[in-house]
What does this fold into?
Amino acid sequence: MKTQQQGRPAASRLSISIETSTTLNIRCIQTMTGESRIPCAPGLLPEAGASATLDKPQLRRTLKERRRAIDHATKLAWDDRIGARVLAWWHANPGAALAVYWPLAGEPDLRPAYAELADAGVRLALPVVLARDTALGFAEWVPGEPTVADSLGVAVPAELRMMDRPDALLVPCLGFDARGYRLGYGGGFYDRTLAPVPRPRTLGIAYSCQLAEFGIGEYDIPLDEIVTELE
It folds into this structure.
């Protein structure tokens, strides 16, 4: 089982430690430590260090329910925190272009941060599903430009100005684990997108309550960093 990206030391990814049986501290590279503001409900997610008992379809349903349970005001505050951390991450090591994502089904909404990046001259792109079982394409996008829903219901620019894969990607996570692996919706689009080398820099985006344990496959690729609302 491959657990480390080529050329990227394991120390540069998410690490986890348990200080008590009930307190879970997550450390995302150089920035975030703290306690989950939504405690794990008994029987929903495997405890850290325990065997994963939920299969992936069950786990996906549980994680979606957990995300939907975040009240609106709390979500807005958490999204602001995550957006600030995305800006700090980008300004610490900017690149030529950044792939962002359009929020779906309760994912962190970072559009205010996207607008700030665009105002600073950052070239942004949205992912485009080209076909099943393929890597994502990317279309240049400026906040405020019109979008349309594709066949999967995902917003894409109304005018598709396709571009090469950006050198940095924001990757939304339905779930994530202590090693920096991501649980998505099951389509495999991001894993196929990240597979070709040289790989882009990746920043996973999630709420801390989406931390879980799950099995990984041969083609799963860990993200460089994952940020949540934790301080």
Q: What stands out?
A: The radius of gyration is 17 Å.
